[in-house]
Each structure stands twice: as structure tokens, then as C-alpha cells.
Amino acid sequence: MVGIVIVSHSQRLAEGVVEIAKMMAPEARIAAAGGLEDGTAGTSFDRILAACEAVDAGDGVAVLMDMGSAVMTTEMVVEALEDHAVRMLDAPLVEGAVLAAVEAQAGTSLDGIEAKIHEARDVKKLA
Amino acid sequence: MIDNKKFVAIVQATAKRIEDEKDFLTELDNAIGDGDHGINLARGFAAVEKKLPELAEKDLGAILKGIGMALVSNVGGASGPLYGTAYMKAGAALKGKTEMTPEDFAAAFDAAIGGVQMRGKAHEGEKTMLDAQMPACKAYKEALAAGKDMKAAVHEAVEAARKGVEYTKTILATKGRASYLGERSIGHQDPGATSSLMILEEFEKAL
Ligand SMILES: Nc1ncnc2c1ncn2[C@@H]1O[C@H](COP(=O)(O)OP(=O)(O)O)[C@@H](O)[C@H]1O
Ligand SMILES: [Mg+2]
Is pLDDT of A104 > 90? Predict the structure, then answer.
């Protein structure tokens, strides 16, 4: 199963997004990497790295990020984890997390999840 | 010529300067960001300082790489991956060297800026640290080409960076957090450009 990591400046936001994703995909391998070790806001290279390693069961990891340094720090984790298939997905954090978790739980590959996320990117909330 | 011992002393001075200017940098970031640039960098450079003893005997490439990794792991904001990549790329440019010539510094500076651009996808004129770094690097290289020595060339770089910081007051942020403020970012100087100026000033003082 593809693993999922939610990266945010806020630990509570990352954990909240995981909570929402688990409502529809309780079996998904999904981890929160939010905030800094000392509890303040920010993005932690070490936390993101540890989360990616923890959820990777050999089928790769999809990472969703909030903004700014969350994206740049994740990029550095991807470069550091050369021997894991870790991929950043460009999507709204909550919708992307729910979609990725549902797909991952259903056994969709990392490529498949990425394609689904891109398809869903233009979906409107207020149609 | 700068050897690894001298370079370590420069980094120690830089760490102290950042610690001393922590509140000022944070204040600048309060105006157009989330008010943590000084806190972020002070945390990062404190981690760098702690790591310096184990790096001190290595070559310049390894020292720079170690500094970059400490910054990436400890800063916590955008300046972490940006400065982290900058130091790591500079390290790659100086791999295996125990001394840095004026030309080596130009190559390392170029590589560092390339790293910031690769990571942040910004250009000059977007109100970021690049607005101090890019004119500084250009001025340094022009001064060398005009026959000036390293000290004089670094002085030119510092002057150009200072002008770059002033310039950031006049422009709109289109990258980073400050871009969410749009027009309201005009009139404020960029925190990252300011810390870049400080890093260069410490370099100049040591020459
Ligand atoms: N994409 C980017 N490219 C270059 N520099 C950037 C970019 N984004 C932010 N910066 C620099 O980072 C500084 C802010 O750093 P910091 O406060 O530590 O991070 P954050 O914005 O995540 O809180 C800005 O003042 C700017 O100079
Ligand atoms: Mg900030």
C-alpha cells in the first residue's frame, strides 16, 4: 500500500488532515509531519523524513504539503531519500489527502494516485 | 586566501551576529511575514555552532555541507531549505579544498545563488534574499575582474547587498509569505535580504 504524509507548519493542522482522511480510509498508511520538535510552528526536515520512512511499505509515498517552506523542505527530503519512491503531489491539502488515502487503501499505485489527484484538481466546491 | 580555520571563525562570527540581530530580523518579518525569521535563523545557526567542532578539521566543501545540513534540519522556515541549499551547493563547488582563493569564492557564491534559485524558483526583483545576493555576487566578480583584491571585492559586494536591501523596500513581494500581502508589502525591507547582508558583512570583517 502506498504511504501518505501530510506536511504542515502546524502539528494540529497536519493531525487534523490525517483525521479527516482516516474517516474514509481507516486502513490507510498515513502520517502527520507538522510543526517543529519544540511544538512551535514550522516545517521540520527530520519529522518529514521520519514520517516518510515510517509509512513506506515498499510501494512508495505520496506527500501533500501546505505552503512555502513545507514544499521546499519536502523537496529536500525527497532528495535525501533517494532509495525510497517519495513523490510530492500538487493538490489542495484536505481534498488531496482524502482522495489519496481512499485510493491508497484501495491498492492504487503511486502513479495511479498522482493521476487521480491531477484529475481532481479542477473540481469546484461551489459548482 | 581563506583556509578552513579562518572560515570556521567566520561562521562563528556569523552565528553570533545572527543571535545578536535575532529581534531585529524577527521584527522585519513581523511586518511582512509571520515574525520568525530571526528566531528561525538563530535556532539554525546555534545548531551550526554546535556542529562546528566536528567539522573544523575537514575541508571547506565538507564544512559548508555540514553547515547547510544543520540549517535545513533546524531553521524551520523557508530560509532553512534556502540557506541550507545555498551552503550545500557552495560546499559542492569547494569540494576537497582546504583553501579558498578569490576565484573560488566567486564560484561558491555563484553556486549558492543557483541553489537558492533552484529551491525557491525566484528571480531578482521579487523581494527576496536574492535581491541582496545577486547584486553582491555581480559586484564581487566585477571587482575581481577590475583587478581588486579579495578584501576590496568583498567590500563592493557588501555595498551592493546594502543597496539591494534598500531596493527591497521599494518593490512588491511576489515570492514567499510576503506575497500574500500584495501592495501592502511595499515600504518594508525584506528580512531574508537583510540577513544575507549580515552574513556578507561578517565575511568582510574577517578579511
Ligand atoms: N521562494 C523564495 N526564494 C528566495 N527567497 C525566499 C523565498 N521565499 C522566502 N524567501 C526568503 O525567506 C525570507 C523569510 O524567511 P523565514 O521567515 O525564515 O521563512 P518563512 O517565510 O517560512 O517564515 C524572506 O524574507 C525571503 O527573503
Ligand atoms: Mg517567517
Answer: yes
Q: Residue B201's pLDDT is what?
A: 98
Report how many Cβ contacts below 8 Å link chain A to chain B. 46
For atom 7 of ligand 1, which residue has the closest CA? B176
pLDDT band at A127 (very low <50, low <70, confident <90, very high): confident
Neighbouring residues of A21: CB distance < 8 A, sequence distance ≥ 6: A4, A6, A28, A30, A97, A98, A100, A101
Q: Both ends of chain A: CA-CA distance in Å?
A: 33
Instruction: Delimit the domains of chain A by residue range.
Output: 3-122
Contacts of B180 in chain A (CB under 8 A): none
SS3 A102: helix
Q: What is the pLDDT, as a whole number, of residue B18?
A: 98
Closest CA to B107 of B132, B90, B82: B90
Residues with CB under 5 A from ligand 2 (ion): B 29, 33-34, 36-37, 77
Alpha helix positions (H), chain A: 11-24, 45-55, 69-80, 93-105, 110-120
Q: Is the pLDDT of residue B1 over 90?
A: no
Contacts of residue A40 in chain B, CB cutoff 8 Å? Answer: 76
CATH superfamily ID and name for A3-122: Phosphotransferase system, mannose-type IIA component (3.40.50.510)
Contacts of A46 in chain B (CB under 8 A): 73
The share of chain A scoring above pLDDT 90, in percent, equals: 92
- In this prediction, residue A91 carries a pLDDT of 94
Whether residue A33 is predicted with pLDDT greater than 90 in this model: the reply is yes
Q: Which domain holds residue B15?
A: 2-206
Residues within 6 Å of ligand 1 by CB: A 68-69; B 29, 33-34, 36-37, 40, 77-79, 82, 116, 120-122, 128-130, 175-177, 190-193
The total domain count for chain B is 1
CA atoms within 13 Å, Cβ hemisphere of B4: 19
B97 contact partners, CB below 8 Å, separation of at least 6: B59, B60, B61, B104
pLDDT tens-place string over residues A10-32? 999 999 999 999 999 999 999 99
